[in-house]
Amino acid sequence: MISLRSILDPACVVVDLDLRSKEEIIKALVDLLSAGGDVTNRDGLLHDVMAREALAPTGLGMSCAIPHAHSASVLCTAVAAARLKFPVDFGAPDGTPATLVFLMVGPKDAAGMHLKLLSKFARFLHDDAFRDAVMTTADASSFAELIYTRDT
After folding, report:
1. In the chain, how many domains are there?
2. Which of 50, 87, 128, 140 could be stapled to 13 by a disulfide with Cβ–Cβ 3.0 to 4.6 Å?
3. The domain that contains 9 carries what CATH number?
């Protein structure tokens, strides 16, 4: 299994993101990944993520969302993360808007890895203590370090 440290660069984490729509949030997270150099076509990636989002909501519940997509516009699996300043609706089954958003993208030929990572994120996001810790981290680096501690 790929390590969380290798797919989540602290430069792709933002805390207290002040955006109010899922489209703006997804665009900001795609931009973070694009700046990292593993995205070959920013607009193509944004299109693929928004097309996937249109198929079914990516809100998990418990104030978390994991928008995701396979795309020919990325070289490898990557994650960008945000703690939102204001909750935004991602269509969670429990009706709670998201304050923690993790954008996960990967190449089209990495479906197995993608599913394993989605499962891993879903497991640790169900942990109340973990979510509370992420909500109170001081900065993006601390946020990323909390994610790395879940690499089991």
Report:
1. 1
2. 140
3. 3.40.930.10
Q: What pLDDT is attached to residue 1?
A: 63
For 64, the token pair is: 């978390």
Give the Cα separation of 7 and 19 in Å (integer).
Answer: 24
Give Cα separations from 139 to 17, 28, 59, 147 (angstroms).
12, 17, 24, 13
Among 69, 63, 62, 79, CA closest to 148: 79
Residue numbers of the domain that contains 130: 4-148
To the nearest whole percent, how much of the chain has pLDDT over 90?
81
Q: Which two tokens stand for residue 55?
A: 């198929």
Nearest to 33 by CA among 21, 43, 23: 43
26-77: pLDDT as tens digits:
999 999 999 988 899 999 999 999 999 999 999 999 999 999 999 999 999 9
pTM: 0.95
Tokens of residue 124, six digits: 């640790």
